[in-house]
Amino acid sequence: MIGPAPVSDAARNGIWRTRITAQARDLSRSTQFVIAAALILGLTMFFVGNLVSVGIENAAVQSAAEAGAQYMDTFLEPYVQEMSRDNGLSAESVQSLDRLTQSRSLKQHIVSIKIWRADGTVVYSTNKAITNHKFPLDEIREALKGNVVTDLKDLDEDENEFERELNLPLYEIYAPLRDSSSGKIIAVGEFYEKADSLKREVNQVREQVWVVVGAATLAMLTLLFFIVRRGDKIIQQQQVALRLRLQEQTRLHISNAELQRKIATATQEFSRVNELTLRRIGADLHDGPAQLLTLILIRLDDLVENCSAVDQESLETIRGAATDALREVRDLSRGLALPEINDLSLVEELQLVAQRHEQRTGTKVTLNLARLPKVAPLPLKLCLYRFVQEALNNAYRYANGEGQVIQAQYSDDVLNISVRDRGPGMAADAMLLEKSGRTRLGLAGLRYRVESLGGLFSIDSCASGTSVNAQFKL
């Protein structure tokens, strides 16, 4: 049976990072800020506290070393004056130094003493085993320059074997020893002092520093936390308010979309019913008044044969009026009843309406048709037919049919159609659709037809002609 494949360390680390990131995102902004601020501010304060502690420690050690160096110079310098001549210590001086190191007052603080020549040779030491031995030390060179050198050390050099066996915390001090007459440095004195009290003082100061730094860090973090938390609450309240507004806007948008859908459906239904009504009116005109007028004309023909000359003249007048009435009724009937355009494309529909207008008026209509959709809904077809028909009628009535052009193009899901003429143009008040009148009523009807399908209607008119425009988003 084959077990699951082992997971590599890289994959395991990636999984843990993903989990930690996901958990961090679930935290509030104030909590995320406090964690980030604690890391950044904590590291900063750690380095600051450490720097201050080290500075205080170095200052305390250096101060103690300088005080100890002055104290030891008083004891050691009288015994090394002969080194300015002999470059060494006599037996009497060594014995005197031994007695000095054994004194009770000195042993309370100093545990070991060494005297160095300038070449790094030990001429005196509490540990007699290293006397007259040479050790390379940087501290000797610094002390020969007149500096007091000190350090809390681990005492790991070869020359510190005796001090290591004491198993005590010590710090060593190198002090220059001078000739009393010339002030020239003739030797270097080294002594090891117990560091118990100094370490206690340094640790106490370090603790105080860390307490102050920690308290300041905690205070800043607390203050920042409450500031960020207050801001976070305000942001959360605003987010809730915005979310509620967004939900309300979404609800209103859905409601508006539903209303627009219902309006569009109602508009299409109204357009269909309107066309059916117009067809019925046209049929009623054809079957009613037109038939009656035809009957009147037939009866007039019968009466003409049995009437006098005077009566025949009156009958001819009546006959002419009836003929004109019959022609107008038939024209109205044909205008109200649209042809069957359901199976026609938009190009064929526009060609048909132009052809009918040319036949009815005896004028010329130019077609500038670009690529048009092959399929369009019936309400749009009805609207376009009536739009072009009414615009051409206005061009014939007010521009004598001069320069009649139908232009249509389809681009980026937008259908643009316009009917232009080269007439004298329209007066400014003539384009006010709110006023009454046959022309304004026709223009208002055009605008209402176009806008009912969500289109845009406009009129451009100047002294060189008029353009009636419609635009539809398909």
TrEMBL record:
One of its GO terms (molecular function) is kinase activity. SUPFAM superfamilies: ATPase domain of HSP90 chaperone/DNA topoisomerase II/histidine kinase. PANTHER family: NITRATE/NITRITE SENSOR PROTEIN NARX-RELATED, NITRATE_NITRITE SENSOR PROTEIN NARQ. It is an enzyme of class 2 (transferase). Keywords: ATP-binding, Kinase, Membrane, Nucleotide-binding, Phosphoprotein, Transferase, Transmembrane, Transmembrane helix, Two-component regulatory system. This is histidine kinase. Residues 279-337 form the Signal transduction histidine kinase subgroup 3 dimerisation and phosphoacceptor domain. Residues 384-472 form the Histidine kinase/HSP90-like ATPase domain. InterPro entries: HATPase_C_sf, HATPase_dom, Sensor_HK_TwoCompSys, Sig_transdc_His_kin_sub3_dim/P. The chain crosses the membrane at residues 33-56, 209-228. The keyword Transmembrane applies. Gene3D superfamilies: 1.20.5.1930, Histidine kinase-like ATPase, C-terminal domain (3.30.565.10). CDD domains: HATPase_UhpB-NarQ-NarX-like (cd16917). Pfam families: HATPase_c, HisKA_3. Its EC number is 2.7.13.3. It catalyses: ATP + protein L-histidine = ADP + protein N-phospho-L-histidine.
